[in-house]
Amino acid sequence: MTNKIWVYIDQFKGQALPSSWEGIGAGLSIAGELGGGVTALVFGEGVEGIAQEAFHYGANEVLLADDATLAEYRSEPYTALIAKLATEQAPEVILFPTTTRGRELAGMSAVDLESGVLVDITALEVQDGTIVATRPVYAGKLLAKVQCSAKPQIITLRGRAFAKPEADESSSGTLTKVDAVLAEGDIAVKVFDYTTSEAGVSLTDAAVIVSGGRGVSNNPNLEAPGDLSEEEQEVWRAQQGFALVNDLAGVLGAAVGASRAAVDAGYIPYVNQVGQTGKVVSPDLYIASGISGAIQHLAGMRTSKLIVAINKDADAPIFKLARFGVVGDLFDILPPLTDALRNRLDQ
Ligand SMILES: Cc1cc2nc3c(=O)[nH]c(=O)nc-3n(C[C@H](O)[C@H](O)[C@H](O)COP(=O)(O)OP(=O)(O)OC[C@H]3O[C@@H](n4cnc5c(N)ncnc54)[C@H](O)[C@@H]3O)c2cc1C
Question: Which of 23, 84, 106, 141 has its CA 20 to 30 A from that of 312?
Fold first, then answer.
């Protein structure tokens, strides 16, 4: 069996990312018009369990490459394998999640297959047998309809833009084992170790995000230790502000985001940055506190389903996008809000 729609399952240390299952959902949404089902590409070592999960989420075929050379994601062996399989079996489309690995692999596969890549797509439809994809452009102010005329069409999907199918543990399909293409000696990159960031819940997969901006350092009532420099005092105050953001995020099981101003000032690491030069997120709920709503920040979060803004300035641009706005000092608002939610959620 060869389906026309292939979905790359991005996994790290034997755990598939939720956006991979959203990819199967996206594939199934166009499978009716393109014909056939969805083939999942599962690469790694000891990943047969992920292949079974792919069946549960709706794939009817899995191409499984289980090999020591694929134990850690590396672009060379992964790209070589995708290029070989796609050349032999000629799928119409290969869908990747817009993760760091997914983006790299999509780009490199497109080079090898002499195709193009449609990136960060938020909707798919089929017109005259060809996929037409929707892509936010100009910081999300316009939606472009784009097509890739070469085959296979290579598309990366924005996280949380497509619904994850309900898993059905009774579903199964055809498991086809395939061999790795490159031997270890042919692979230049070696992975020695990983260091974990302190980002906590992944921003791009989070259903709820609580973000802080430059405003988190603005509490004149907080007396910073006198032996710190002025700059260090600002960071110290920001840490007190971000502690409130973290508390609220903890109660909601949310990820913590930040504006670039907060990152540039050293309040919080870059991995937490949301926006044009940070992460693009699409949670169910986005709470922006002490963030003005510059266009570059909005570019990263404007597709959030529900936006709540807390800002001292009633004219802050973030209020134009927010469904609910609270005009006030975040230092006054966050603690009782967190307490109220803690009580409501019975924690
Ligand atoms: C090429 C380029 C790329 C960029 N990429 C990004 C990006 O990816 N992400 C991003 O965020 N920005 C990005 N920026 C920067 C962007 O233009 C803004 O400078 C930045 O978003 C501002 O961050 P902010 O809202 O935290 O700070 P500010 O604009 O300084 O706003 C702080 C807000 O906090 C409010 N405030 C202050 N004190 C309190 C308080 N106690 N309680 C409540 N509210 C308070 C203020 O009223 C104000 O609205 C980019 C800029 C450029 C040029």
Answer: 141
